[in-house]
Design brief:
By secondary structure, the protein is of the alpha+beta class. It has a single domain, classed as 3-Layer(aba) Sandwich (Aminopeptidase). The protein is globular, with a radius of gyration of 17 Å.
């Protein structure tokens, strides 16, 4: 069944669409003022998203079949709940398509997928300066987890710690 004009549809990214996925990642990076950090290639994405062991999934929000937003997500696990969860790594809607419900539909699709997959929760992070997104998420009923601080090991620090595991 094809969507009616103006109807939002959500569909998985195909293995042949890694250039489109990378384009969305780059657009998100520009929005977040982090474009200098994008080093991913189409080949990297193909291996990670469409290889023999996919590490993440991508869905597109489309209007009349045209992708105007995307979400990249993967499963995590809650030891306290004893169940998997979904972690939303990236969500982006092109500026010209904002305010049309694409972000809400992407999150609703993820919420339904979480429940259908037996997940206990849906988690994500947002940059602290991104007030429009924070307001949007709070309006959906999402809760801030101010008691948690995110940490990351990468680059030299990751290399050095890994070298200690002999």
């Amino acid at each position: 069944m094809s969507p009616t004009p103006g109807t939002i549809s959500i569909r998985p990214a195909g293995a042949h669409e890694m250039a489109l996925v990378l384009g969305f990642i780059r657009e998100l990076a520009v929005y977040e003022h982090l474009e200098h950090e994008v080093v991913a290639t189409e080949a990297d994405l193909a291996a990670a998203l469409a290889g023999p062991k996919p590490y993440a999934e991508v869905v597109f929000a489309c209007v009349e079949g045209v992708p105007l937003g995307f979400a990249l997500f993967f499963h995590n696990f809650s030891t306290f709940r004893g169940k998997p969860g979904i972690y939303l790594e990236d969500l982006f809607v092109r500026p010209e398509a904002r305010g049309r419900g694409l972000g809400r539909q992407l999150l609703a699709w993820l919420a339904r997928a979480a429940l259908e997959r037996g997940c206990a929760r849906l988690d994500w992070a947002v940059l602290d300066w991104n007030e429009p997104s924070i307001g949007f998420y709070l309006g959906l009923g999402a809760r801030r987890l101010d008691e948690w601080t995110t940490f990351r090991l990468s680059g030299t620090a990751l290399d050095e710690l890994a070298a200690a595991a002999r």
